[in-house]
Fold this sequence. Notes:
Blueprint: H1 3-42, H2 45-78, H3 81-115, H4 122-151, E1 156-159, E2 162-165, H5 168-172, H6 175-205, H7 210-245, H8 247-253, E3 265-272, E4 277-284, H9 287-293, H10 303-314, H11 323-353, H12 360-368, H13 372-386, E5 391-393, E6 397-398, H14 399-402, H15 409-440, E7 447-452, E8 455-460
Antiparallel strand pairs: 1-2, 3-4, 5-6, 7-8
Helix pairs in contact: 1-2, 1-4, 1-6, 1-15, 2-15, 3-4, 4-6, 6-7, 6-12, 7-8, 7-11, 11-12, 11-13
Amino acid sequence: MDELLLARWQFGITSTYHFLFVPLTLGLSLLVAMMETVYVRTGNELYKKMAKFWGKLFLINFALGVVTGLVQEFEFGMNWSEYSRFMGDIFGAPLALEALTAFYLESTFIGIWIFGWNRLSKGLHAAAIWIVALASNLSAFWILVANSFMQAPVGYVLRNGRAEMNDFSALLTNPYVWNQFPHTVLAGLVTGGVFVMSVSAYHLLRRSQVEFFRPSFKIGLICTLAASLLVAGTGHKQAQYLAEVQPMKLAAIEALWETADPAPFTFFAAIDSAKQENSGEISIPGGLSLLVHNSLTGEVKGIKNLQQESEKQFGSGSYVPDVPSVFWSFRVMVAAGGWLLAVTALCAYYWRRGTLEDKPLLLKAAVATLAVPYIANSTGWYVAEAGRQPWIVFGLQRVEQAVSPTVSATSIWMTLIGFTIVYGVLAVIGLYLMGKFAKQGPAAPAETTESVEGKGVELWT
């Protein structure tokens, strides 16, 4: 493997590990804040117990998310120095703001929340977890501002071979980020809701601590069902926007080689990228036109025509992403979303009838559903990033132009192996701890008071 391919593998692996923890941080932090708010407003100790139990699992996930994310910023300098040189003036601004605003708020108030039980008033303590939750989602916003520039550059000028920012407000109002951000936050709520629902279903199956996990299941179920419907809506809006700003990505998602009016929505296709054709298609006539134009008629540009347009605009070369992987990743994401809606709708139906706990197969399906949002999140991000290829900054810089010219394949191999092993160990530790505490439930003592060097320090464990 050459340096470019190794650098891509390294960033892909570390990003995938990191993104396993991000959506749960976004969603579960909000759910814990809501639980504690109910406790503050009603005085019901059950919701305090919920906030502590689900908060403990949130903290483990949060810590792993922070650790796995740190190395990515260094990779920009190590493996992608030409990218950093080309657009560091723009990319660095939102990342700096993410650290100065969101991360500092998270790290400060999460400590206050952990050690503030019985030391702060109920309202102030609840405010601390709300600040953590909002800061976590603010962090996602700043990162998406940076990513959206890579997807649809705005507010810049090319000067001395670099992209330099000339309008910060344009970055903040980039339509791409305002299509991406709601979808990401809602996907986090889906992940958090499924997490709560699945762990609760595990205990309901075993008739374990039912009085605690029955209302927890209801909270997770409502969150998952509502957020799943909203995710589908924001995803639809994103697809329509792609037709305007990244038509090649949309065409790759549908393996649409020829421009069509009306354009079909394809469920299955045997894709031959070399011949640029499909065989054995199963599709809905006019389905893609309906999704893009809200009408059964409407032109959608095909890959071949878009390739010709790109060559005229940017010069010779291939501007087609890896169509089969993008096509199938999108369908895995959609199938995962369909599974989520089906399982939560069935659970909601039997919950209202009061017979859900008599449906062990459905509860087992709810437990198994824990993996589904992670599959949807990972495949969704793969579509977003791989569908942009060969661009690292759309229309401005190709991936092969962004790699560091002086980093050897040997050094990348060493760090690739090292990061993969370390991240793998962290993942095993994280899964073990979360599995241990999730199975244990809140029945074990949640609070202990210990004296440390003569100081009375209440440790929440």
